[in-house]
From TrEMBL, chains A, B:
<dbReference type="InterPro" id="IPR047233">
    <property type="entry name" value="UAH_cupin"/>
</dbReference>
<dbReference type="InterPro" id="IPR024060">
    <property type="entry name" value="Ureidoglycolate_lyase_dom_sf"/>
</dbReference>
<protein>
    <submittedName>
        <fullName>Ureidoglycolate lyase</fullName>
    </submittedName>
</protein>
<dbReference type="InterPro" id="IPR011051">
    <property type="entry name" value="RmlC_Cupin_sf"/>
</dbReference>
<keyword id="KW-0456">Lyase</keyword>
<comment type="subunit">
    <text>Homodimer.</text>
</comment>
<dbReference type="InterPro" id="IPR007247">
    <property type="entry name" value="Ureidogly_lyase"/>
</dbReference>
<dbReference type="GO" id="GO:0016829">
    <property type="term" value="F:lyase activity"/>
</dbReference>
<dbReference type="Pfam" id="PF04115">
    <property type="entry name" value="Ureidogly_lyase"/>
</dbReference>
<keyword id="KW-0659">Purine metabolism</keyword>
Amino acid sequence: MKELQLQALSADAFAPFGEVIDGQTPCEQYPINEGLTQRHHALAAVDCAREGGAPALSLFRAQAIAPDFVLRSMERHPLGSQAFINTSGNSYAIVVARPGALEEDAIEGFLATGSQSISYHRGTWHHFLLALDCASDFVVVDRIGPGNNCDETELKLPLRLALPR
Amino acid sequence: MKELQLQALSADAFAPFGEVIDGQTPCEQYPINEGLTQRHHALAAVDCAREGGAPALSLFRAQAIAPDFVLRSMERHPLGSQAFINTSGNSYAIVVARPGALEEDAIEGFLATGSQSISYHRGTWHHFLLALDCASDFVVVDRIGPGNNCDETELKLPLRLALPR
């Protein structure tokens, strides 16, 4: 079975798919709160208001995948962005492809550190949450509203992750 | 100087001010992702679209306050909710009062655990971020757009936190 290599997650490498939310991502920055806090401003838009929808915050409590987990499907949200904010401090895997017709050969894998969160652009193909070593919580910002906001497709060629275990 | 006691943060106690985002808050829950993830659905609305605004994700990197820190002001956002998603796993303090004319006698203090995040309702008075023991990162969901979205007021009677140090 094809093994998908995981590259380090960075804002540049992830740009075709969405935004990386961490302290390294280049952005406008300025001090607030009497200088006690640095604001890294507007790292990702929340694009969840189409067709009567609105964004909300949910909690995803993910179990870790098994070491031999097989990736068999991908999904995309045609009506909104979806952000996964990592609140457990654990590393996790991200598997994505560009919006449009899914090109399986162009699927990319990333390894996020425990201090990295991400937001998928509307329409970015992605595998569901892949917690690696232990159960992990993510606060999710996504669209709630009428209409179909999840397309799912089976992979013709299932994948395994080449994991750094 | 008046000392503000901190109560444990819970969804019930915080309800007049906003929402608590953690695994304990009662909500609709259901399994997703082939049963690997439990979705705690719609713990908090994102109310950031008034008057030409839109929500975005920013990162707040907060230094810890000094043990003798004096709280001298409160602020509120008349045009939007503001969520602080705790990504560092550290405890922090929350100081709030209900929307409307600020009643200093009714200011309340909460101690959040490292696994608790919160969202302030539009108009809730709050002190700025109060990291306690060490520098801490929060991913913030708030309104970006035209118009004044921050009212600030000086406290007539400054406060100190009664901290569990």
